[in-house]
Request: fold
Amino acid sequence: MTSMKLVATSLAYLAGTAIADAAELVPGSAYSIRLSSFQGVVYHSIEPDGYRVVMTLASDTEGSTIRLVFILGPGQRAVISVPQSVGQPSIDLEIIRNGDALLVNEPESAERPTLVDDIQAHAASGE
Reply:
């Protein structure tokens, strides 16, 4: 097993999901995501200090929009969590920087991310 596959398998094991469930994000392309009652897009660009990840989410019910921006270095991860009712587990979306790849693990009930047709990253971010 190559070291890259070993690292990817280890990260997937630690995250509690199979690596086959993770979607790889391509720099400069936007992907649609759904996280509980929020929907939006995520994309990333390669910057000198790491991968700049931008996620824009809108509430289905309130119409409110939020944007999350973070930089991930090799081996780092970010978790976006939506709490549920008391006694229910949170709904989590995880973004993992695995070497040169950026992987997204969505909640099991969520649909897989898909490429947003012909949308450049800057158009999706509104920047």
Notes: The first helix runs from residue 3 to 15. Residues 22-125 form one domain.
